[in-house]
Amino acid sequence: MRADGPVVIALDGSLHSEHTLEWGLHEASLRGADVVLTRAWADPRDLVEWGWYPLVDVELDAEIATYLSEKQAIAVDRYPELTVTARSLRGSEVPVLRELSVSAQLLVVGARGRAGRLRMGSIAAHLAAHSRCDVAVVRASEESPLAPDAPITVGVDGSRASLAAAEAAAREASMRSAPLLVVHARPTVSDPYGRGMPALSPESATDVDVNDPTHRAAQAVAARIRTQHPGLEVRVALLDDDPAHALVEASKDAALVVVGSRGLGAFRGMLLGSVSADVVRNAASPVLVLHDGLPD
Hints:
- The structure is a single chain.
- The protein has 296 residues and is of the alpha/beta class.
- It has 9 helices and 10 strands.
- It has a 10-stranded mixed beta sheet with strand order 3-2-1-4-5-10-9-6-7-8, with helices on both faces.
- Helix 7 links the parallel strand 7 and strand 8.
């Protein structure tokens, strides 16, 4: 998890961008990081196909510059301690934002759900996989407000990626003075559709088979986090369930879910592991996707 560079907040002019902006500014304030507000734009397809119109090009650039200037003023007013700059990026959104992510510590993008659905758009999906820095995929809350003790949630399976995710989640929880929920889902073969057996609540975690080596390992991760972060409330949920399904369910009560870009137990060649991809697509909360800095 990179600690230097700005927090880049990608806006698209939609109503959802207001929530993306506020979430990104709050995160930057917690990190003490500079902020870059940006909006990527490309020439309208009909203009590209029918010819070049410099006047329209200039007008569109000016319109986006005005939009970013307005959002910059709002950001400075709400968070006067932050250094906020704005950049208009000309080009297709995924490649220009990926290029900007090279020097950033975090890229914040909106999930862009349609008709009230929680599924994210293709741009957020591509950036979650291809960004060169960590990515936060932000969803606007359409349900009742979260409880004050809503946890930062992370899944662990013993892989190096999941251990790094647990450490990052602990830092996020510490910054927010929020509890940390460490989820270990043990896949079960009893359900051929991969949705597992009824989940155990965090309170009943002590009732599971303490001799199960994977459950013991998850408890060990939680114990290490407690040692490294004194005062942080660390909860453990030991579940018999499909890992992706368990994390998506946990996201309904979470302030944030943290996953590794290559997934829980994913092999090295994958850009976004299957569990991580499922969580990013379907989680009800914002999702922080960690990148290890290795080339695609």
